[in-house]
Amino acid sequence: MDRREVVRGTVRRMEPIKAAAAQLAPELFDRDRTIEKACSAIAEAGRNGARLVAFPESFVPGYPYFAFLLAPTQINRYVATLYREAVQVPSPATDALCAAAKSAECYVVMGMHERRGGTLYNAQLFIGPDGAILGCRRKLMPTSHERMIWGRGDGSDLSVYKTELGTLGGLICYEHANALFRYALQVQGEQIHVATWPGGMPGINSIIDAAARSYAFEAQAFVINVTSVLTEASLAALEPELRDQLKVGGGYSGILTPRGDWLAGPQLEGEALLYAELDFARIDAIKSIVDSAGHYARPDVVQLKLNRKPQSPLDDGST
Amino acid sequence: MDRREVVRGTVRRMEPIKAAAAQLAPELFDRDRTIEKACSAIAEAGRNGARLVAFPESFVPGYPYFAFLLAPTQINRYVATLYREAVQVPSPATDALCAAAKSAECYVVMGMHERRGGTLYNAQLFIGPDGAILGCRRKLMPTSHERMIWGRGDGSDLSVYKTELGTLGGLICYEHANALFRYALQVQGEQIHVATWPGGMPGINSIIDAAARSYAFEAQAFVINVTSVLTEASLAALEPELRDQLKVGGGYSGILTPRGDWLAGPQLEGEALLYAELDFARIDAIKSIVDSAGHYARPDVVQLKLNRKPQSPLDDGST
Amino acid sequence: MDRREVVRGTVRRMEPIKAAAAQLAPELFDRDRTIEKACSAIAEAGRNGARLVAFPESFVPGYPYFAFLLAPTQINRYVATLYREAVQVPSPATDALCAAAKSAECYVVMGMHERRGGTLYNAQLFIGPDGAILGCRRKLMPTSHERMIWGRGDGSDLSVYKTELGTLGGLICYEHANALFRYALQVQGEQIHVATWPGGMPGINSIIDAAARSYAFEAQAFVINVTSVLTEASLAALEPELRDQLKVGGGYSGILTPRGDWLAGPQLEGEALLYAELDFARIDAIKSIVDSAGHYARPDVVQLKLNRKPQSPLDDGST
Amino acid sequence: MDRREVVRGTVRRMEPIKAAAAQLAPELFDRDRTIEKACSAIAEAGRNGARLVAFPESFVPGYPYFAFLLAPTQINRYVATLYREAVQVPSPATDALCAAAKSAECYVVMGMHERRGGTLYNAQLFIGPDGAILGCRRKLMPTSHERMIWGRGDGSDLSVYKTELGTLGGLICYEHANALFRYALQVQGEQIHVATWPGGMPGINSIIDAAARSYAFEAQAFVINVTSVLTEASLAALEPELRDQLKVGGGYSGILTPRGDWLAGPQLEGEALLYAELDFARIDAIKSIVDSAGHYARPDVVQLKLNRKPQSPLDDGST
Amino acid sequence: MDRREVVRGTVRRMEPIKAAAAQLAPELFDRDRTIEKACSAIAEAGRNGARLVAFPESFVPGYPYFAFLLAPTQINRYVATLYREAVQVPSPATDALCAAAKSAECYVVMGMHERRGGTLYNAQLFIGPDGAILGCRRKLMPTSHERMIWGRGDGSDLSVYKTELGTLGGLICYEHANALFRYALQVQGEQIHVATWPGGMPGINSIIDAAARSYAFEAQAFVINVTSVLTEASLAALEPELRDQLKVGGGYSGILTPRGDWLAGPQLEGEALLYAELDFARIDAIKSIVDSAGHYARPDVVQLKLNRKPQSPLDDGST
Amino acid sequence: MDRREVVRGTVRRMEPIKAAAAQLAPELFDRDRTIEKACSAIAEAGRNGARLVAFPESFVPGYPYFAFLLAPTQINRYVATLYREAVQVPSPATDALCAAAKSAECYVVMGMHERRGGTLYNAQLFIGPDGAILGCRRKLMPTSHERMIWGRGDGSDLSVYKTELGTLGGLICYEHANALFRYALQVQGEQIHVATWPGGMPGINSIIDAAARSYAFEAQAFVINVTSVLTEASLAALEPELRDQLKVGGGYSGILTPRGDWLAGPQLEGEALLYAELDFARIDAIKSIVDSAGHYARPDVVQLKLNRKPQSPLDDGST
């Protein structure tokens, strides 16, 4: 039933798999309840046959809207809450996600605030269907107001994960604006790309649309594009000073072919699990025309110089 | 009136300039008549205040539709015609274009078949308002059937042109699918990007749309997006074996902001000179959020390694 | 009269020099008028015998108070102004400063917003008494809200300048919180350190006080500590939304001995040029007890690994 | 009741703990009576709810004031006494301290002269509430006259201790003047820093003040700052040749927030146990702005190279 | 009465002990009678309160003067005698010495020809007051003519013995000329050093003098310096061909302080047991100035690499 | 006349050379006058046929007697003078010495306070007969009170100089107490060793005597042993607080054979240039018996591990 072929270490699926984009609203600033909600969604996706389910940027415990809606002088208590509600790896929070993934026999890509030492990161956690953590990548460059909240990842955060479904990769939000970040994944043979965004900001939907479609085409990869969405409930949970500046809606989740066409979505309003079949023959079809890291590359002229080394301010010879 | 500021060798315009995208149909396979048509368009654009006018991919003497519509066994005579009608640099054909540019006081970016030695190239010719040739760049990687027609450029074809209007660059068609080609221009401070496409193939309009919008955003540059278009006249000029497989229309020209929004176009049908005002304050605005080759870059992690050296099969120490 | 000794490339002054800290308010958001004001202050300092005069952080055209007082959604027009009023190097603005330095026969260290390409930097410009630019260093890591405004410097920004007055170095604001940034200057033999801060934020005066005193002692160097200050005039120049959140005062400029004692200042209120005599015998006295990069160092145990290489996203072999 | 969270091996306390700085005078040159006095203080601190109590530099059996007050030709008999009254690890003296720590359920950091082989060291002994010795660090670089008394530690003396209270570290006196020594602790996630000083030298109080406040801020850690103090009794115990050159007082103990503000002290006169509540949320608050070894670090530019290896003049392959 | 303190495994005596240097003449070439004579001397030393008594180089059965006084062609029969009269460990000869040591409650260091397999070694046998053999070290490098008689020791012969008296070590004759051999003992904390020499060669007395005094100072250890001596009786026992080339006298035994001053001796003529009190406070006094393997070492620059492994021409994996 | 042989890079003199030990008193604390005096002595030595002349420890501008005669609290003004009167390399002071060496056609080894950056070192300057500086070695470990004055050298200070006279090396004062420092020179083939001492401290003459004789023998090298001496004039130049604690005399200069015998000196009183002929055949003679780094070494058992690398607290890849 489940047939695949391994080409130089990279899986080429012989029959489609089902993937899901979870356009959900977090329980804002509440790590444990959001984890619970995520686990339910994973279970549902699994029941519906999805082998992979992806969640929005910083889903646990929610995007820091306060950071652009309020003056920096006003955000201290929100930041303190984030430090408390951020996710550590590993911790009971990730244990719960791993258990859900295992139970649903499903790959999970979770957007979350990760805490390492005294710094928060905008991270994507990759979990396998065996409940093991594949990795946790940090956004390399937070955007504008986000730089007050998150630190920066490094070259170790530009890896892909070779799985039995194919090669998975991910980027977060405006990381898609940097051609070198994108190419770093593409050149490693990425086949399924998880693009995550905060949601709740309809003003950037046209940017998301172009980025998702363009990424699929230039990577010749499926894109699971996931945003969060604002619901009545999530607005109700916010302080008035934030709620009054936001609106219900602002989703733009969906799934795209390796040519950049929408297979599912984009879904603009409401919570939804969006599903699509990923038929890997589509990758072959487009790569026969344009294989950006293969016959369409010009390594004699342009190369990506990638420093994969984790960066630490301490060099005590232990790494 | 015309105020600008020089920032480390790069012009920052203080007031908008007008640019034009020339969605025109060539006089197919007739270099001289197409040049004539181009010169008229340049004059018209100049009269309308444009300081820059860009023409479609391989405008002189027209895109080789035959290369994908006919079996390769059937294309010899078309190819022979192309060799004859291609443009050499310099030649009376380029002299005419230069004169037109000078007369219109206008920068011109012309798509054309360039012949160098025994090889044709898919080229973009850049001409200044003083009638001088700035350069002639060759597409680095022709796509699929095009590889039967055109050779490949090299690192010398990934330059930008620092002009009094700002920094100009260009890519042709699926060169936009390669992130490294794109970044090569962006990292050099490109402010106005000329993206050219053949036109006449509505099937790839969604790809053009995503590429143009995405390029603008990731480069934080204006994009002059130019396709040709098929008209009744151009179809009439074709052999039936080609004509019957094509349709009137297939344009997608327009001009985009550095955020990826359409200022003019996209124009799907008919010949047209599309105009827009380029206000460089828009570049500042978006770059303050995402400057892909500045504060948003991570040179400690990813770098573009660019070999600018012209490639020649002969190394006699002369370069 | 002016006697000095050269010790392994480093000047050891035999008689005191006079230095000045210019606690001034900029003409907010007006580059040209602020430059004019700076030039007057340089002339005055020169007349009073100062051989070195230092100006506050981002003096030209003023600290972006808006960035922490307003919500990020409200700051676009202020940012646009900054892009316009920032200083390019070289430009007429720096030409004016250089001329003033030459005329006053004075070293000048100027805090300013520098624009390079599409990115602004929080920079310190070092000018010699011959009117030549010694260098322009960029803050390596903007702080919190500042990350919405400024990019990041690199290892080329951790140099010192060997001058006939002695070895000069500088750091900006919370760069003083990073021990490695500090030691990078100290290990290069820094003798006069220019520490700059925005001013106008009395809440951090205790941090400035500890940082300046501690720096002097650990570097065994004189510290010229310079903040701006808010005056009635500067508040009047601000939009009400900013003015209402700020108060007159907030200075903390002064000059410290290499043991960390105040020679002049700290000056809390009002504009002032603060002067002090720097007697280099004081450096010897403290270094005989603690020479952090000499007899008190333990290079067998701890070393600073400094990557001086300028970082560029483009590697085309040209550097 | 006692809640804490483990972040990548580092404890993050969820509720405050109480710490104590023991500004006491030793029974000069009498190891056993000083140990007895220390044990009483540990018991008292424990009764008052302290979970950590820190003692001054070289508390057992007292700072060698003679080394700077007398000519080196006069100090032999004092040195001989020190060799006899120094502490060995382990020994009955450390057994007594360990028992006191266990009985008080308290972490203890004890300043002492440690004897190893033929050399004395200026050491800090760390004891856990279970009565076990965590480690004993030696000052890396004695200062001036101290170099006649103490040997030098090595990279093994720059460790921190991960405990259930949080991550503890310590430095002694002018070790605080070396930025690399300081950063070595900070980069290992230090949360509570024990800074010890001799006391009895009011002339350096301004240096202690700046060092303690600056350390706290740059480490984003609590600082337990401990000095000894001279009492009538301690002066009476001294030989006249020393007593006549010293004065009662000279304390500067206290406890500081991770922002560098005094929570308790500084206490200038008299013996006292100073207490403060350490609320770890304060660490989060300041780290969200400046995390020197996290989001505020620039490992791509500056790194601390730390050689942790114990140094021995013998390499017989046994380590 | 007998108080001592253990410092990291090394004894620090709190009150002096008495040591003896046995400047005796052997019963030449007669093992058993020489052993007998040694046992008497041990008994006498014990009666006189000595806790340690040391004997000259190759005391049993005497130094091979023949090896330099006769032509090698003439020495065969002397060598044959040596093979017969050499000491094996253990054997009745060592049993006798052990019994004497036990009876006298005295440490004994005995110089002797040791026979192992087919090779003789120049050895020092260490016996405890309990009559047990502590070890038997072999001279690492015989000198000149000695190389015709003795084999060479290895790294297992550079050990020290930690005893209740303190740490004992020994070297033989020109082993003292090799700085690394010496440092090998010193770095292991040697406190009492037994230096042995043949005696009977007054020409090298100045070398012995410098070596013994220098060793004491550089080791900060007591030195028991022991030579044999030629008496009328010993000369009478020799063949004329040897006797005629030697003279009565040639002793240089004595005991030195850790500063290199003579406490007893040097004794030039006649047999004698020389005694001295070893007051370990003298070690502290000099080590406070120079501790060659402690605060005066530079392990970051120079280290002794010591291969302690016994060397065997067979490697069958058994060690 | 001047014959020599080169053996594996090391000169073996075929005929004696004359060397001189300059037992002189400096013009205390006056660099320039002391240099002048040294130059006269060099000239005189040259006239008398010396090819090498060595000066005492810290000759320029004199040993810091104050550092052990006065309490550390009293020495600041003396230290300040030392910083001013120390020698920089190169500087007019070393230029004068070089000129004198060249004029006298003589190697010169000069003891001096060297200033590098903010630290003083106890250094030996080696100058060739061509007036070029061969090197300047720093004492690796100052002794006791000296640690208040001087920093520490590193492995680059344990080099020897291969000259046409033979291989020269040097150690300063109690560096001779560390067997590894000594062996570091010996193993490099040292033939002429310059041992320098302060002079003026007759209490350590027995240590100097043993050290010099022992060194010669263990190195199988000539030793030029040089101390300063106190004269009426030098005492008169001192402040009473120092003068009253010192006495005229205290010299111990001389020249020794490679067997440790005095060829000239030791000279206890008065200024003198001591001369001796160095006949290299003496080295051969002793080395045939004991060659510590040759046939008498046991590299299979003991090796000196020498880290020659200069140590710097900065590692910026430039070395």
Overview of the molecule:
Six copies of one chain form a homohexamer. With 319 residues, chain A is an alpha/beta fold. Helices cover 26% and strands 28% of the residues of chain A. Chain A is built from nine helices and 16 strands. Chain A has helices at 31-47, 66-69, 76-85, 92-104, 179-186, 205-219, 232-236, 240-243, 281-287; strands spanning 4-7, 10-13, 17-23, 52-54, 107-116, 119-127, 133-138, 161-163, 166-172, 192-197, 222-227, 253-256, 262-267, 272-278, 302-306, 314-315. Chain A has a six-stranded mixed sheet with strand order 7-6-5-4-3-14. In chain A, strands 8-9-10-11-12-13 form a six-stranded mixed sheet, with helices on one face. A two-stranded antiparallel ribbon of chain A has the order 1-2. In chain A, helix 6 links the parallel strand 10 (192-197) and strand 11. In chain A, helix 1 runs parallel beside helix 4 (92-104). The radius of gyration of chain A is 19 Å and the shape is globular. The mean pLDDT of chain A is 95. Strand 16 (314-315) of chain D pairs parallel with strand 15 (302-306) of chain E.
| Largest interface, counted by CB within 8 Å of the partner chain's CB | A-B, 48 and 48 residues
Largest sheet of chain A: 6 strands, mixed
Strand order of the largest sheet of chain A: 7-6-5-4-3-14
Task: Count every helix of chain A, treating DSSP H or I runs of 4 or more residues as helices.
Answer: 9
| First-last Cα distance of chain A | 43 Å
Rg of chain A is 19 Å
Structural class of chain A: alpha/beta
Q: Oligomer, anyone?
A: homohexamer
